[in-house]
């Protein structure tokens, strides 16, 4: 992830690397990209058919609102960029030095998810692992103008609203048109992973707070660069606690 910032500032390096022979260890990835290139070229070369299986490439090809440059094979193969729209917005306003004017534009705005996810008004004790904060039996913090009686009808009525607001504020996959298209797959993978891990008795192994604390931002939040990640020792099945300690590490 540390290479993300380098590629951001020196984007020409990417084009240079594309001319170098590929790594034999990534042969499968190279074949996959070539198949994508061949598929895109085939889609762009033919006209639209009624019996054609729709895909994102067919929709882009048949779109009348996109310029030809946006339909080029290289453009469709690579990740989408927003630089053209950003420059259009900035160029239409002229030189802008006032922060409020910049914030009124749509593309220059951004949200640092860590700031939202650690907002104590939304997530009290945000650094504490507390799955109960998502359950309907949570205790709703008292409002400044109207105290909420714990366990009373006001709290039961406010709890679903608070949980709904927290879910809207959970931006792990972002929101709106830029939301991650793989969010459902990621949620399914996490559910399967948690269900699998719950079947085992695990204990931390040479892992402390420094292995999870956010220290760097390389496209995603990262801990200390020398961290080996969260590691655990498998003691056995959760229902059989006297099984001999295994020397399996993750």
TrEMBL record:
Pfam families documented for this protein: p450
Top-level taxon in the UniProt lineage: Eukaryota
GO molecular function terms attached to this record: heme binding; iron ion binding; monooxygenase activity; oxidoreductase activity, acting on paired donors, with incorporation or reduction of molecular oxygen
Keywords recorded for this protein, A-Z: Heme, Iron, Metal-binding
Name by which UniProt lists this protein: Cytochrome P450
UniProt xrefs under PANTHER family: CYTOCHROME P450 (PTHR24305), CYTOCHROME P450 12A4, MITOCHONDRIAL-RELATED (PTHR24305:SF166)
Phylogenetic classification of the source organism: Eukaryota, Fungi, Dikarya, Ascomycota, Pezizomycotina
Organism of provenance: Xylaria bambusicola
KW Iron (keyword) present: yes
Annotated family: Belongs to the cytochrome P450 family.
């Amino acid at each position: 992830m540390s290479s993300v910032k380098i590629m951001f500032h020196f984007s020409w390096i990417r084009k240079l690397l594309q001319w170098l022979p590929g790594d034999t260890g990534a042969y499968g990835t190279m074949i996959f990209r070539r198949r994508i290139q061949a598929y895109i070229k085939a889609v762009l070369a033919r006209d639209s058919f009624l019996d054609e299986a729709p895909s994102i490439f067919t929709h882009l090809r048949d779109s009348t609102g996109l310029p030809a440059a946006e339909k080029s094979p290289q453009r469709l193969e690579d990740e989408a960029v927003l630089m053209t729209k950003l420059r259009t917005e900035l160029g239409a306003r002229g030189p802008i030095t006032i922060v409020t004017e910049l914030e009124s534009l749509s593309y220059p705005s951004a949200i640092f998810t860590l700031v939202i996810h650690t907002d104590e008004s939304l997530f009290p004790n945000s650094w504490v692992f507390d799955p109960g904060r998502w359950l309907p039996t949570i205790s709703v913090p008292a409002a400044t103008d109207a105290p909420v009686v714990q366990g009373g009808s006001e709290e039961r009525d406010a709890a679903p609203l608070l949980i709904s607001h927290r879910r809207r504020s959970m931006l792990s996959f972002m929101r709106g048109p830029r939301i991650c298209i793989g969010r459902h797959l990621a949620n399914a993978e996490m559910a399967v992973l948690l269900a699998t891990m719950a079947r085992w008795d695990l204990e931390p192994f040479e892992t402390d707070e420094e292995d999870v604390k956010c220290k760097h931002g390389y496209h995603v939040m990262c801990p200390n660069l020398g961290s080996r990640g969260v590691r655990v020792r498998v003691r056995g099945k959760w229902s059989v606690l006297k099984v001999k300690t295994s020397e399996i590490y993750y």
